[in-house]
Amino acid sequence: MIVAMMKYSFLVYHAEYKAFLKELKNMGVLHIEVKKHEPTTEIQELLRAYNDLSRTLRNMENRVKDKEVEGAKPVFDNGEAVLERIHAIEGDLELKQQQLSNLDKEAQQLGPWGDFNPQRVQQLADSQLFLRFLVCRDKNFDPQWEKDHYLKMISSVGGFSYFVLIEKDERQEMIDWPGVDEIALPQKSLSAIREDQSLINKEIDQLDNELDLIAKHCQGQLQSLSDQLKSELDETNALYQTQDEVEERVKLIEGWVPKPKTEDLNAFLEDRKILYVANKPSDDEKVPVLLKNNKFARLFEVIGDLYELPNHKELDLVPFFAPFYMMFFGFSLGDAGYGLLILGVAFWLKPRMPAMKNILGLAQWLGLATVIFGALTGTFFGMDLINEDIPWLEGVKQYMITKENMFNLALILGVIQILFGMVLKVVNIYISKGFAYAYSTIGWLILLIGSGSIYLLKHFGALGDHHGGYAQNGVFIVSGVLILLLNHPRRSLVMNFLSGLWDVYGMVTGLIGDLLSYIRLFALGVSSAILGFVFNELAMSLSPDHIILGPLVMIIILVVGHGMTLFMAGLGAFVHPIRLTFVEFYKNAGFTGGGKRYTPFAEKSVE
Q1: How many domains does the chain have?
Q2: What is the rounded distance in angstroms from the CA atom of residue 363 to the CA atom of residue 366?
Q3: DSSP secondary structure letters along 225-277
Q4: Which parts of the chain are coiled coil (predicted)?
Q5: What are residue 380's DSSP bridge partners?
């Protein structure tokens, strides 16, 4: 559900304002309303520094993730010193990488010429023997040159010939050979360049190791600096959003407070004799959203966050789609063995990874749903238990669902969720606009539920054709009036009728498409079962007839095969129910969205 908000306006004497902000921040209840959207230079610099530090923290965390780091703990006075050293190391690493890149280019230049000493070339030049280093394509090289000149072929690499021409006069003009270029070589030998590269690589390793040690031991100092910057940024923004009144003697600041927290805030304001006004939000105001759900629904908020938050005038759909999402995941994966595996891993990791508590809690519920649907369909690690000769299962096979019935079940679940979404749409419209605007949706509910109920009653003999016809006509009349004539309380009957006809076309085509989308649940469930069965067959057929190798090969095929199946089927079981939720369910529930999360002005912001 969405927690109701109250809008507060505070009028504070300017000399007491900073102390008031400090106390307000300690309470951590006010979401400051943004009135000035263009940040000042000071705010921009603080935000840039905070974002840079946040990126550094993430890099440090990822740097030592699942990595053993050995060495003495580096000592720094504070987080600023840590950040300064990190930046210095990163600058040194960038310089070293640039030096390595330049040395690589020089090594590539020298590679075709071999490892020679440039000083020896200079000694020859001092003795009036000058070397020209020449290169041309292999097809342009003429062997006659070696007979006519003091010329030596050095190498042929990559379609190019590299050769040296010896001359006695440095000023002698270069012979005009077509396609031949003279190149200038680095003033280092190849071995010297390799030594420089090795030395720089050692320096890079030392810098990397220092970064690893900082990442392992100094993240706490960086986090403290991050909290300090965030606090300073929030306070600066609060002052920026403050308005000056009464010749700058009175400060005005406005914001939003969750209704359950207003009692304590009011007591504080009365005690400090602060002038304030508290009002309910108007329809056109952008009110921050704070969700408050039970333990089960709270786990699925991470799914809802993938789309967007509801606005403050509508229902929070998370607790309503959570059971459906759980069922759809179990339906799509549909293997009791995989479900038990997910459950086991989640139970094992949960106490060891407290930061992932909510995600692992969600995995537990999804694993449980998979176990239930796997048991209903008789699938266990790709084995079709319905067709297996297992004596102790004979008594429960009659309760299992065959592949043929899975198709019908997928459509039934789709019908239930779509109708449930339309019921929620009525509630949403009633909350935001009024009951009269929901007549059209109510008409569709009467038409769909009424027609379906009459069909079922006639099918099971509880209603005769004669009375069933009267009942059906009644449903058509009531729903037709609501859909075609009363769909909008502020339009004429003619406009309502024309709009209703268009609504009929859109609903009929839309509902059919929405309903057919739920067939993907059946397809995913069947495909995961088939993949598991195929790997079971491969393990049996490809295992050699050997007392040791046979079981070993079988285990390898089963582990790899079912691991691949679980990954692919699990990904599909996660993604496709999300699509059904955000496209089919949200649309039929009339979800508008566009809400902004409640972020209080606090020492450390919490949701």
Answers
A1: 2
A2: 5
A3: HHHHHHHHHHHHHHHHTPEEETTTTEEEEEEEEEGGGHHHHHHHHHHHT-EEE
A4: 43-106
A5: 383
Question: What residue numbers bound the domain in which 153 lies?
Answer: 116-188
- The pLDDT tens digits of the residues spanning 282-313 come to 878 888 999 998 999 999 999 988 888 988 88
CA dist 303 and 574 (Å) reads: 10
- Stretch 188-203: mean pLDDT, rounded? 92
Residue 114 backbone dihedrals phi, psi, to 5 degrees: 85, 180
Is 276 within a domain? no
pLDDT for the residue 319? 93
pLDDT of residue 465 exceeding 80: no
Mean pLDDT of 492-518: 85
Q: Which residues pair with 32 in a beta bridge?
A: 255
* CA 156 distance to own-chain centroid: 52
Give the other-Cβ count within 10 Å of 198's Cβ. 10
Domain-embedded: residue 288: no
Residue 606 confidence (pLDDT) above 70: no
In sequence order, the 6+-apart residues with CB closer than 8 A to the CB of 390 are: none
Contact 318, 578 (CB under 8 A): no
Distance of alpha carbon 340 from alpha carbon 375, whole angstroms: 11
pLDDT in tens, 238-263: 888 888 888 778 889 899 999 999 99
- How far, in Å, CA of 587 to CA of 46, rounded? 41
Cα–Cα dist 469/454, whole Å: 9
Q: How confident is the model at residue 607 (pLDDT cuts 50, 70, 90)?
A: very low
Residue 221 lies in a domain: no
Q: Is 67 a member of any domain?
A: no
Q: What is the DSSP letter of 149?
A: S
Q: At which of 157, 188, 219 does a domain end?
A: 188
Of 23-27, 462-466, 469-473, 536-540, give the lowest mean pLDDT range.
Answer: 462-466
